[in-house]
Amino acid sequence: RREPLSLVNLKKKNEETGEEELASRLGHCKAKATRHIFLIRHSQYNLDGRADKDRTLTPLGREQAELTGHRLASLGLKFDQIIHSSMTRATETTEIISKHLPGVKKISTDLLREGAPIEPDPPVSHWKPEAVQYYEDGARIEAAFRNFIHRADAKQEEDSYEIFVCHANVIRYIVCRALQFPPEGWLRMSLNNGSITHLVIRPNGRVALRTLGDTGFMPPEKITRT
Q1: What confidence score (pLDDT) does residue 125 get?
Q2: Predicted confidence band of residue 131 (pLDDT cuts 50, 70, 90)
Q3: In whole angstroms, what separates CA 128 from the centre of its chain?
Q4: DSSP tag of 179
Q5: Per-residue exposure over 113-152, b if at least 16 CB sit within 10 Å of its own CB, e if not
């Protein structure tokens, strides 16, 4: 419901001015800017931690975050904000990345926490969460997609560059939804730790995937997927 026609109350159309007034009102609702969305997977973390607070970044994970932050800074873009999952590994990754992007505000959200977005097709034998988890996590992750992945607001004049630091399942699901691929195929993609996925959302609502899980800026021995 972000098409301009859905934002205009057609019942208020003036019969005298007709199409001219409608065109004018539609013009005020049309997006003018392009949004660049950079989805960052958190770095390697301690898999032995029982609670989220114990799943902190490993020494290698901290190195990966430094490399990712350096890569983002080297792009020379004026980033508007960093929105990150409230989970420990994503928060720590954000803190390291943000050192390379001084002045960029950070926002924490529970919507981007890791979870089971939708039952994968084909199914996999090594990962079978409880069915209820799909209902609980799926609704939240879908809400994250609808809340964050959309065309620019009509009031936005300049292109924006936003960073989202979150998790592999969330990113893979968002990519499928944004490209209008069957979301059940999310598990067919694999993302490295600290990787960069770049989505472009044009004013007309069209979405393009520029990079998926890029870690070409990391030395081979620093790359992990755990």
Answers
A1: 83
A2: confident
A3: 24
A4: T
A5: bbbbbbebeeeeeeeeeeeeebeebbebbbebbeebbbbb
Residue from 152, 161, 148, 156 nearest 73 by CA: 161
- CA 83 – CA 165 distance, rounded (Å): 6
Strands of the chain (E only): list them: 35-41, 81-85, 105-109, 160-166, 196-201, 207-214
Where are the chain's structural domains?
Answer: 1-30, 32-222
CA atoms within 13 A on the CB side of 124: 14
* Stated pTM of the model: 0.90
6-21 residues labelled b (16+ CB within 10 A) or e (exposed): eeeeeeeeeeeeeeee
With CA atoms as reference, report the closest residue to 217 among 94, 80, 63: 63
Q: How many CB atoms lie within 10 A of CB 54?
A: 11
The secondary structure of residue 51, as a DSSP letter, is S
Take residue 65 and report the two structure tokens written for it: 């975050």
Report pLDDT digits (tens) over 87-102: 999 999 999 999 999 9
- Could you confirm whether domain 32-222 is CATH 3.40.50.1240? yes
Query: Residue written as tokens 């209902």?
Result: 135
DSSP 149: S
Q: Which two tokens stand for residue 40?
A: 């960052």
* Average model confidence (pLDDT) across the chain: 92
